[in-house]
Write a sequence for this structure.
């Protein structure tokens, strides 16, 4: 069963984004591409907010953000409630971001990650389930801190469950 993935980039990640949109659709995923759609310079916050907002509100199960180095997108995305964005540069980081952190937004730097590596990172990230256990306890502590500092609402809507991890994936 496909999950809803929202993807966005600035001009520094648009080539990689376009490649990933094509790849994800070939894999049968439900992809919403929020732009940008060209190489003209744009401001990454304008596209990062579109992805982070949809994931935060539960309108998408997962998000992918791309810019030249991924750092700005990471800072922006992690400002949103219920977003756990991870800047990843290899398959090991992709696996750990899901297993340990239940990351729901994947961020990559288009200036550092090539198309084939990016496809492998996305594949691993989508197929890896959250391990729970001690990692769930740690995420609960992060959520409590977010509430303390006003970054999280007292009660969050339920996160997508079965749809968030594809059935038939390696678990």
């Amino acid at each position: 069963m496909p999950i809803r993935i929202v993807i966005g980039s600035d001009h520094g990640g648009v080539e990689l984004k376009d490649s990933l949109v094509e790849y994800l659709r070939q894999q049968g995923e439900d992809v919403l591409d929020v732009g940008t759609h060209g190489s003209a310079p744009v401001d990454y916050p304008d596209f990062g907010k579109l992805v982070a907002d949809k994931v935060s509100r539960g309108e998408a199960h997962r998000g992918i953000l791309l810019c030249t180095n991924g750092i700005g997108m990471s800072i922006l995305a992690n400002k949103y409630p219920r977003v756990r964005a991870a800047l990843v540069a290899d398959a090991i980081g992709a696996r750990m971001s899901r297993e340990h952190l239940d990351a729901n937004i994947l961020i990559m730097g288009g200036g550092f990650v090539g198309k084939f590596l990016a496809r492998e990172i996305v594949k691993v990230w989508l197929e890896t389930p959250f391990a729970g256990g001690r990692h769930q306890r740690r995420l609960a502590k992060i959520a409590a801190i977010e509430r303390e500092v006003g970054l999280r609402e007292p009660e969050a809507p339920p996160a997508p469950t079965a749809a968030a991890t594809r059935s038939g994936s390696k678990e």
User: Anything to note?
Assistant: The chain has one domain: 4-164. Confidence is low (pLDDT under 50) at residues 167-171. The longest strand covers residues 4-9. The chain has six helices and five strands.
